[in-house]
Amino acid sequence: MADVTVSINGEMRTLVADAEMPLLWALRDVLGLRGTKYSCGIGACGACTVLVDGAPIRSCREQVSSVGAGNVVTIEGLSGDGSHPVQQAWLAEQVAQCGYCQPGQILTAVALLAAHPQPTDDDIDAAFAGVLCRCGTYMRIRRAVHRAAGG
Amino acid sequence: MNTLSNRPTPGPDGWTRRRFLQVSFTAGGALLVGACTGDDGGDAGGSAGTPTPNTGSTTSAGSTTTSPNSETTTPDTTAPNTTTPGTTVQTTDASSESLFAPNLFVRIDPDGTVTLTIHRSEMGQGVRTSLAMILADELEADWTSIQIEQAPADPALGSQTTSGSGSVTDTYSTLRNAGATARTMLVAAAAGRWGVDVATCRAEQGGVVNTGTGERFGFGELVAAARGLDPPDNAPLKEPRDFGLIGTAVPRVDGPEIGTGAAVFGLDERVEGMLQAVVARCPVPGGTVVKFDASEAKAVPGVRSVVEVPSGVAVVADSTWAAIRGRQRLSVTWDEGDNAQWSTATIDAALRKVLDARVAAAAAAQGVTIEARYETPYAAHAAMEPVNCIADVRAESCRIIAPTQNPQAVQSFVAERIGLPTEVQVTLMGGGFGRRLEVDFALEAAEVSRAAGVPVQVVWTREDDFALDFCRQPTRHWLRGEWDSTGTVRSWRHSLVAPGLNGIAYRAGNEVLEEGLEIPYSIERRTNESNVAAIPLPTGPWRAVMAGPNAFANECFFDEVAGALDRDPYELRMELLPADDPLRVVLELAATSAGWGSDMGSGRGRGIACHEYHGTPVAMVAEVAVTGTEIRVDRIVCAIDCGLAVHPDMIAQQIEGSVAFALTSMFKSEISYEKGRVQQTNFDDHLLLGISEMPVVEVHIVPSEKDPRGVGEMGVPPVVPAVANAIGAATGIRIRRIPFRPDDLTP
Q1: Complex ipTM, two decimals?
Q2: Which of A60, B42, B208, B404 has the largest count of CB atoms under 10 Å?
């Protein structure tokens, strides 16, 4: 167990964690940020997605001790008040059903739009590969991404 | 997240408090979620002595006999401030003496807060929104400032079981009456205050208007007067043409909190003093502990204790990660029990043996026949939120906080097991699909809490969730159709073999197998029989239950018969459906919308299928493209007649979701067994449909003024047969088993 300091949503946080503790569990159980979800633990579903320096990272596979100086953005930190254009697009298209996978979907969309402001459907397919939704909201995710892109 | 103050409400003897999971919705879209669970310090207790809210007063505080223009004085009326529209109203006065609560579903505070109690579980199908709409519409509440409260287990509410796609159907009348009753009393209270006839008063958007003078009372201002009134026996309901919410696509109430990560799912709940636990269970369902060695597990930092429970060995720790690490260091010797004899090969052999016997026993056919066998495997629920449950067993009471579709069953099963009065709070859940109807996880959590002596949250890893699901049963079907020289289908035979439901709360035999077995077509002799296979592996209700496999077999075999008769499958369906069958309407709507009959070009095909599930007819046309052995599902056109569409967009969502759900079972995954062990462990070997595989889904809702009927499962049964029929149209090859394998397309 050791002290780890990480930047979470713009705040430096120091926590005690064992060296192998995934960032996911550090966020949820140590820091009380439970918007990031556990679903598979092996990086196969994307529910645990956070942004580290803007890139989508599966926090269940990232040790908190490896984050280093990267700035982590969780769903709570995206806007604070739901005003991010992707969050607004998600509401406009009424994407969510149960909502459990949606923090990961939203952050995946944020990262995609940062890299591809006008993504094609193929870009969407690639970015969202392995970001799973059992409720089947995929059509609306696609529409929301296009809407957020201004399309 | 705000934690709202606990609002103690006494119930019948034996209950001293209720805790509510409170969700409030504001016009600004920010959604505040509070779990009144003691997060804010200790037992956020209610007091046993809180007086019962006034429900049976015989004197009207708002007298109707005062002369016009004089101020009505009422003994205990204050003049509360009118609520500012658009703000979140929080009740700081928790005294139930000042509330207006004419029934269990509507509560109004003097400050105007309208709280609606939802007594079905939210798992994405939108009941927190749709049921609230029904209440709010009849009540004439201001939708932008209602609060939603999730009801704990409480038999006084009637059923709280969220299953059978019955939430809207089964509560529609109750909720309309509840809203209308409150509305009627508020109007009477206002009329009394003004000294006018009720006929000149109208409830409108959270207030009552005096149509003669234009004056308005907000609901909050009428609380004291309304409390003094007797609830009417038959409050007049709105005419459907006057609905303001029902029938509209209001934004889902929990959308904003989902999008910001503020939504609290079962796994996100916390209670004071709670520890996290994972349970080592025998990899063979039903196996038991012989012995275990916890010495290494206990040495893992964060692990607090290791306790044996009936379902296995629980590692209790101060974090989920520590519990998982601790369990990895646990060694357990298991007695695997009888289920270890079952493997997919022996399951298959057992089912085939019964089906062969039924085939042999069938009377010989007379005319021209075709026959075919169909099969489906065990199917996992695989909700994105894995199973989990919080239990807090104290000396004299037990509390469960769970994502459950079945709170009253949890309450009675746990109370019986633990021997203590049990409260059950229902959380938001990340999908249910029938898995959370079972009570196993709640019983287990209660055992862990009792053994460990602390409140615990039992977390199931994804591997745990796959290893001990209560899957949809595997099925084997034999169908035979027979026609005469005129091409008239004379007989139809369907023999089904499958295990029953082998769970704790859900055990069933032939009655569950028969769901969807009968066809709607007018064929002279129809013989259906179901045979329960004695395979005791755990099984449970899965979205649409047996209607999925039965519709697969029936609707595909129907196409096989149509093909043998050289008949268009849509036309033959229309010919053989009775004239008044509602399936005709949805078939025609789906076929027309899809452009049935137009040429699709080489390698592409259309298929049609229909099924009426629990009174809701649904038809689908699927379009596929086949390249070699690769299948792409391009489009599903769906028509549904679910009566009045309470929320048309949520209906579309449920159909879209059903398509994805069914396509996963058709193309992506199954559950198989080897020596009693489920072979699939996670999303890398049990795949789910991905975004690139999702077809376009078009939903056409038949306009209707009949009372609403269910939707949540109704889209599942027609999907697989529509797609299989489309593949048949494109390739000439019949798909008779799922999941599809490429060599199924090898002629």
Answers
A1: 0.98
A2: B404
